[in-house]
Amino acid sequence: MKHTKVKDLLNSSKANYEVNAKGWVRTFRNNQFIALNDGSTINNIQCVVDFENTPEETLKRITTGAAVSVIGELVESKGAGQKYEIQVSKLEILGDSDAEKFPMQPKKHSLEFLRENAHLRVRTNAFGAIMRVRSVLAHAVHTYFQEKGFVYVNTPIITGSDAEGAGEMFKVTALPFDNTPRTEDGKVNYKEDFFGKETNLTVSGQLEGETFAMALGQIYTFGPTFRAENSNTSRHLAEFWMIEPEVAFNDLNDNMDLAEDFIQYVIKYTMEKCQDDLKFLEGRLLEEEKSKPQAERSEMALLEKLNFVLENNFKRVSYTEAIDILRDSTPNKKKKFNYIINEWGADLQSEHERYLVEKHFKCPVILFDYPANIKAFYMRLNEDGKTVRAMDILFPGIGEIVGGSQREERYDVLVEKMKALGIDEEELWWYLDTRRFGSAVHSGFGLGFERLVLFVTGMSNIRDVIPFPRTPQNAEF
Ligand code: ATP
Ligand code: MN
Fold first, then answer.
1. How far is the CA of 55 from the centre of ligand 1 (A)?
2. Interacting residues of 144 by C-beta distance below 8 A, sequence separation 6+
3. What is the value of pTM for the model shown?
4. Domains and their CATH numbers in the chain
């Protein structure tokens, strides 16, 4: 007999037939009621064991975490909370789980403890829900772009260019640490390395993505990205997944429209497909916030917050307007910010971004036209000569979720900018070719997938929305 997923059993259109279910025991009550979960849904199916006719030996082995297979009749449940249950006629223990030792006890565990048990935390309701939501969100990303005719591009993970400037990089090398080959002046001789040159793990697929956009029109990447930044925050990972669309002939406004439409689409898609999981996560968040002071609690419950993003346009504000707002803000005047905003040109810290989004506008914000000297070399210089067509999208509770720009398509302007910043033209010869041969206006952005998952699940630490987080001093599993 083939087993049926718990999700399908709970959604069955009929009752009173024999079924087989396989899964892991969440709880076993009164020597009679197994709450069985197989990961197909957050909901358990109740399996009623005929304890009088089941050997004591077997009953003892029905412990939290054990893998079991049950055969029995699917019947309408008399108990509250579930439509169906299984009247077990045959029970087989597939894999025992020592109740004393199994770390995932049916009680509340701290998120820190669960992180240390990332291989087992996915057996909890919260992490099962988060990981299913993450999977559906990833599918939504592909669905959105594929339906719009974007080409999915796999940009390299090992890159030979270190000029992107998006963040600190991890070196990739096959050279030995002892007896490292050196040049005459004592530097590491990368000519003898595997690739014959210095290589790194990518911090962004953008530059390669641009070359594809200048041939295929609309492309997107969705892949792993690495940053060796030693920032131990709840928003940064050393290994994360980034989505980077790039579109030929799009200007900055088109880019903002795309980003907003895309984010709203994937959230809506996920809300439709993950109702049970999101409802659970909403409850989890409410529970978590009970322990916080009133002022730190969210003003909206999770689903309300997601709906709010779907129903409201993102507020578009220039950097210059944002600086004026921040300069006049109470925390700035009362010197409550760690970094006081005095003048135009200041780089915005996350405290400023969050003030704008959470206190001032109270909705997602797109900041655009940043000062050229706090942004990357490839961004399109505006006519004023001092700002670039950059945009960052800021989300409540998250801060920056998207960073993007219209790209500098003018060869001369781009080269001049690279010279000024000391970026090696020869190294980026292939990138400059896009501006030499058939250059055109184009734009794109990078969205950190985990920051999106954070927002949708209502979690607050990025380590809790990726299966096995990589952070400074931590690469377990
Ligand atoms: P931040 O200012 O938050 O450090 P950034 O400006 O360095 O981000 P970008 O280079 O613009 O980030 O990267 C594009 C997007 O990738 C960001 O908007 C963010 O969503 C995501 N991102 C960047 N760095 C990380 C990281 N270390 N971990 C997870 N996501 C990240
Ligand atoms: Mn950025």
1. 57
2. 262, 265, 266, 269
3. 0.96
4. 6-102 (2.40.50.140), 123-168+206-464 (3.30.930.10), 171-202 (no CATH)
